[in-house]
Amino acid sequence: MHTNLSAQRMIWFVVLAWTLPAFADVDQPLAPRNIGRDHAQRMQKSRALFKRDVASTLRTRCLRCHGKRQAKGGLDLSTRAALLKGGTSGPVVKPGKAKQSLLVKLIRHDAEPTMPDEGERLGAEEIKSIAEWIDLGMAYDRPLNAQVELDDAWTARRIDDRSRQFWSFRPLQVRPLPRADADADHWSRNFIDRYVLSAARREHLTMNPEADRRTLIRRVFLDLIGLPPSPEQVDAFVDSDDPQAYEQLLEGLLASPHYGERWGRHWLDVVRFAESAGFEHDEDRPHAFHYRDFVIKALNNDMPFDQFARWQVAGDELAPDNPLALMATGFLGAGVFPTQLTEKEFERARYDELDDMVATLGVSMLGLTVGCARCHDHKFDPIPAADYYRLIATFGSAIRSNVELHVESEQPPTSVLVVSEGVKPLKHHAEGRGFPHFYPESYFLGRGDPTQKQGVASMGFLQVLISKPARKRGWYVQPPAGAKTSYRRSALSNWLTDPRNGAGHLLARVIVNRLWKHHFGQGLVATPNDFGAQGQPPSHPQLLDALALNLIRRGWRLKELQLLMMASATYRQTAADDLQDRRRDPENRWLWHFQPHRLEAEAIRDSMLAVSGLLDRTSFGAGTLDPSSRRRSVYFTVKRSKLMPMLQIFDAPEPLASTGNRPATTIAPQALLFMNNPQIRECAKALARRIEAASDTTFDQLISRGYATAVGRRATVTEVAAARAFLLTQQRSYQRDSPAQAKRLAHADFCQILMSLNEFIYVE
Questions:
Q1: DSSP string covering 3-46, please?
Q2: How far apart are CA 50 and CA 235, in angstroms?
Q3: More confident residue, 252 or 104
Q4: SS (H, E, C) 690-730
Q5: Residue 722: which residues within 8 A CB-CB, separation 6 or more?
Q6: What is the average pLDDT across 92-100?
Q7: Which residues of 123-158 are buried (b: 16+ CB within 10 A; e: fewer)?
Q8: Cα–Cα–Cα angle for 428, 294, 459, nearest 5°?
């Protein structure tokens, strides 16, 4: 019996000696060999908790200020021995007694100074894990120094001040206007012209004179509402002797409900808006159209652009009771997303979804290709991979979901696709798995691979767009009591729109450039989605900054800025060519004449419906896939696998990623479309009926009315003669087969030719 007892004791001591190194802290001497079994089990649990949760929190949130290389207040958290030692004010932890530990009080913000002192506070789960770890004995599985050095190789890159001197990252510059002599004062109408004229003279270019009123009214109608003026509107403007007639015309069009439909389409290009998931199954998102309606309504109401941007990032947090603000968050959920996944693909798909949000935010609002930093530090711009993953963390708990909202006060509630937190997710990879708790944290990923996690990423912003005085100032928002969201996106929206210490100066430059591009045919920055090193520098940097400052000082009102642009002498110029000036500046970079440009596909189609009298002007609501629809083209349902062929032929983009510049191709199918498309033929017949009703039966009057309706001007003598001969020939041709319809069919042929003119689809 004695021998058996001794053997049992020997076995126990062998097992205990073998397991003790796993229980003890690796940088402490081994505990006495008479350690109890309960203590060993507690230390084992503590070590496992440290390895699973606590170590990543300490590395990513604490060691930057309390590590071996920098220990604020003398407190070093990189090893157990250093943590037990405490800081200059004494010990901060009592192993086994979390409630009595000063460290827990500091991270709970129950004592001063609160920790962390920069960025948002630790999450409830992170605090709970640290407290439990201390209660269990506070075991480390290894010192954290080595891991910190590893992380520093890619997550701790610091952006120096030299990087902030790149033109788009610098603060907006206030500089004196170029000096103007009498000639400049004679031509210039506002400060825009002073900058443009100064640059043109430096290049030895001569500015063009002002266009005639018929040209101007058609130009501004197509620019602002995407529809041509009626003959009556043209005649009234041309015949007016009011010196303010042009400005009144602009103000009236800016107030038109069609303004938002025209300019909303421009923004939808930038944010890759569509109403289906994409990929091979391309499941419909039947309630996504509410985001399109938000964009149109916001632009019509002249919502300040900083609010417009903020609501799209965090409308559910900033104005949770406003249906329009909730609709705005559709911006985040408009991208492609696979709907048929295996379980192994779930997490990767989630990181792809977050990547889409961050990448689209970067190019649309900041003009930066932030998504390029997913796998490594950005190769050209000062965007470390760490900054990318801190932005990812901002959206970590945000999910797409359909919610019931009273979009119209007098209408019953309807389903709206929003992106928020604390709501039931849509059917996708998180179904039945308690998302967002399924992926409670966002991680730094090695090479962008979810299987190579390298620590929890805390939220943050692009370092290059944080000014020195503000690096420790927060844009962070303390969630109110009972909040269901983290308010991380509210903090992001504050940084995004802060022109003094955050990214607001770049946000202003980017939207100013987008407006300029659509009014003048090309941007001051020719790459509207890339203001980084790989993009083009601005042709008129001082003008760009002056316009951005003007926008901010006037409360971010886009319509006021557009009125300023379109009132300038630069905008009012003719499109006339000059051989010598063209040789000096073939691309019109220095704006010595108005740059003709083709209408977008939607405006071409809408113009045909408008001049034919067939346009259905009903606004908002669900769209359609019926190509014979007579509503404006912005109300077509955008299904990624079933885009409108007519719009695609004229270069409407595929909504897979942000489009800043649409191409303007010239291809044979475009001419064939005008010859053979049944909807275009229907418009031609309707236009023929319209001009027949408004004129006598003589060919000359019919021709005159046709030109006035289609292109807003009188036909020349040569055009009248050619059209008369064409009508006679066509009418005789139809007499053989359709004598009763010969005249009307000939008229329809003539109207189809009018809508096929280059002049019909170009802004001159």
A1: HHHHHHHHHHHHHHHHHHHHHS-TTSPPPPTT--HHHHHHHHHH
A2: 79
A3: 252
A4: HHHHCCCCCHHHHHHHHHHHHHCCCCCHHHHHHHHHHHHHH
A5: none
A6: 90
A7: beebbebbbebbbbbbbbbebbbebbeebeebbeee
A8: 55
3-state secondary structure of 176: coil
Q: List the structure tokens of 51.
A: 């390895």
Q: What SS3 state is found at 257?
A: coil
Over range 460-469, report the average pLDDT. 86
Query: Which H helix or E strand runs over 416?
Result: strand 414-420
- Strand, helix or coil for residue 284: strand
Q: What is the pLDDT of residue 408?
A: 83
pLDDT at 25: 44
The kind and range of the H/E element at 597 are strand 597-598
pLDDT, mean over the chain: 88
Q: What is the pTM of this model?
A: 0.81
Q: What angle do CA 353, 357, 362 make, to 5 degrees?
A: 145
CB contact at 8 A, 465 and 503: yes
Q: Which residue type sits at 372?
A: C
Terminal-residue alpha carbon distance, the chain? 109
The Cα 217–Cα 249 span in angstroms is 8
Cα separation, 56 vs 54, in Å, equals 6
Name residues whose C-beta falls within 8 Å of residue 577's C-beta, 6 or more positions apart in sequence. Answer: 593
**Which of helix, strand or coil describes residue 548?**
helix
- The DSSP 8-state label assigned to residue 395 in this structure reads T
Per residue in 215-244, pLDDT tens? Answer: 999 999 999 999 999 999 999 999 999 999
Residue 697: predicted pLDDT: 67
- d(CA 160, CA 352) in angstroms, rounded, equals 30
Q: What angle do CA 253, 255, 261 make, to 5 degrees?
A: 80
Can you list the alpha helix ranges (DSSP code H) found in 554-693?
558-567, 569-572, 579-584, 601-612, 645-649, 668-676, 678-693
At residue 19, what is the residue type?
Answer: T
Residue range 683-712, pLDDT digits in tens:
999 999 999 987 666 889 999 999 999 999
**Nearest CA among 740, 631, 633, 756 for reference residue 706:** 756
Mean pLDDT of 24-39: 52
Sign of CA dihedral 329, 334, 335, 339: positive
Asked whether the predicted pLDDT for residue 611 surpasses 50, the reply is yes
* Six-digit token string for 647: 């719009």
Q: Is pLDDT at 9 greater than 90 in this prediction?
A: no
Q: What is the DSSP letter of 125?
A: H
**DSSP type of residue 210:** B
For residue 369, give the amino acid letter: T
Long-range contacts, 509-514 (Cβ 8 Å, 24+): 509/168, 509/172, 509/367, 509/544, 509/545, 509/548, 510/365, 510/366, 510/367, 511/305, 511/365, 511/551, 511/558, 512/544, 512/547, 512/548, 512/551, 512/561, 513/367, 513/538, 513/544, 514/266, 514/270, 514/660
Are residues 106 and 151 in contact, defined by beta-carbon separation less than 8 angstroms? Answer: no
Whether the CB-CB separation of 625 and 640 falls below 8 Å is answered with no
What whole-number distance in Å separates Cα of residue 419 and Cα of residue 401? Answer: 6
Query: pLDDT digit string (tens) for 615-649?
Result: 999 999 999 999 999 999 999 999 999 999 999 99
Using only the alpha carbons of the chain, give its radius of gyration: 33
> pLDDT tens-digit profile of 701-758?
999 999 999 999 999 999 999 999 999 999 999 998 888 899 999 999 999 999 999 9
**Positive or negative, the Cα torsion across 214, 215, 217, 222?**
positive
